[in-house]
Automatic annotation (TrEMBL):
It comes from Phialemonium atrogriseum. The keyword Metal-binding applies. Coiled coil: none annotated. PANTHER family: ALCOHOL DEHYDROGENASE 1-RELATED (PTHR42940), VACUOLAR PROTEIN SORTING-ASSOCIATED PROTEIN 11 (PTHR42940:SF8). Residues 20-359 form the Enoyl reductase (ER) domain. GO terms for molecular function: alcohol dehydrogenase (NAD+) activity; metal ion binding. This is Alcohol dehydrogenase GroES-like domain-containing protein. Keywords: Metal-binding, NAD, Oxidoreductase, Zinc.
Length: 365
């Protein structure tokens, strides 16, 4: 088996050198890999809201740091002790958590709960783009345990945001619908980069899907999908006087079976809880600065469930990529060249921006 391709000694990277300052493009040595790691040539990398939080110093990252935790590329080197049958030339996406210690409480508990080591909960894990170098670089180091194959029909540009935005809302949807049947009503609340994918995932899995947003841009995004089969069955303006009536009629007065809330709005989360049917599940993805506030009476007397959800684990992400390939799910993308990275935050914060923002790191050969 070929263990590596020819790789240059130097590469271009974009670094966060100072908090709240634009990224700087620099030259840096191509990283070396350990025996249990992969070296990936990056073709596309996403910019996520979490990258903005890193820039503001919310994660206490040690600088300088190469940002981005949404990479897609090709394996060019394989460590001698890597497992999993990886090959040079494999098209892959990489999740941000890697190199778990397998000995801490997080590793031990998650192994018992999930039936195998789950690097997401390791107390000593590395976090690409958050605490360690990420994907705004021509090459990056990957852990084979948190690397997934990209189907041939999925472009690098489309695959990149699936490694965080897609995996986050997919993981939440799997938790929300674990006990549901095809045809049950499911709501996606907050139609942005995550919610846009959540609507498509829910439809692809066969649920009667409601897209809810207070913004006309969000409601429009819910209908901007690759095919009619991925469009929400009902799009609701949450500020409309008859919003609850629309949802009640759609669900035959029973209520929503499950909801994934992709906004940190306390009001939106509290309102969504009231829409659930008996035994309904709400998965909250937002991280509000304030404490959650839910109606105890509704929660108790309808026996509702509120769940948190971290980004999906590797096996869940592999299931997601199969659905993406089979259903033609796509993000609405804005793609910029690597040279535009220093101004990417301004682009992301424009009021007119919607969907996902992806940087083309290298041109496909």
């Amino acid at each position: 088996m070929e263990q590596e391709q020819q790789v240059p000694e130097q590469m271009k990277v974009a670094q966060l050198v100072k908090y709240n300052s634009p990224y700087e493009i620099k030259d840096k040595s191509v990283p070396t890999i350990r025996d249990n790691e992969l070296l990936v040539k990056i073709y596309a990398a996403g910019f996520c809201h979490s990258d903005l939080q890193v820039m503001h110093g919310q994660f206490g990252s040690e600088l300088p740091l190469i940002p981005s935790h949404e990479p897609a590329g090709v394996i060019v080197r394989i460590g001698d002790k890597c497992k999993g049958g990886w090959k040079v030339g494999d098209r892959v996406g990489v999740l941000n958590f890697k190199n778990s210690c397998s000995a801490c409480a997080g590793c031990n508990v998650s192994t018992r709960i999930y039936g195998g080591l789950d690097p997401r909960f390791c107390e000593n894990r590395e976090m690409a783009g958050f605490k360690h170098d990420g994907a705004f670089a021509e090459y990056m180091v990957a852990d084979p345990e948190t690397t997934v194959l990209i189907p041939p029909s999925v472009s690098f540009q489309q695959a990149a945001p699936m490694m965080c935005a897609g995996a986050t809302v997919w993981g939440a949807l799997e938790k929300a619908t674990a006990e549901l049947q095809e045809g049950d009503p499911v709501a996606i609340v907050g139609i942005g980069g995550l919610g846009h994918l959540g609507v498509q995932f829910a439809k692809a899995l066969g649920y009667r899907t409601i897209a809810i947003d207070s913004r006309p841009e969000g409601r429009q995004l819910a209908t901007d999908v690759p095919s009619p089969g991925l469009m929400a069955d009902l799009v609701v303006d949450s500020t409309a006087p008859d919003a609850e009536e629309q949802i009640s009629e759609f669900t035959n007065d029973e209520g929503i079976a499950a909801a994934v809330v992709c906004t940190d709005s306390l009001a939106a989360n509290a309102w969504t809880l009231r829409l659930l049917r008996i035994g309904g599940v709400l998965v909250a993805l937002g991280l509000p600065p304030e404490r959650w506030q839910f109606d105890a009476g509704v929660l108790v007397f309808r026996e509702l469930v509120i769940r948190g959800s971290y980004v999906a684990g590797v096996e869940s992400t592999r299931r997601m990529m199969q659905v993406v390939e089979g259903s033609g799910i796509k993000s609405r993308l804005t793609v910029v060249p690597f040279t535009s990275v220093p101004g990417i935050v301004d682009l992301y914060q424009e009021k007119s921006f919607s969907g996902r923002l992806v940087v083309q790191i290298s041109d496909e050969e």
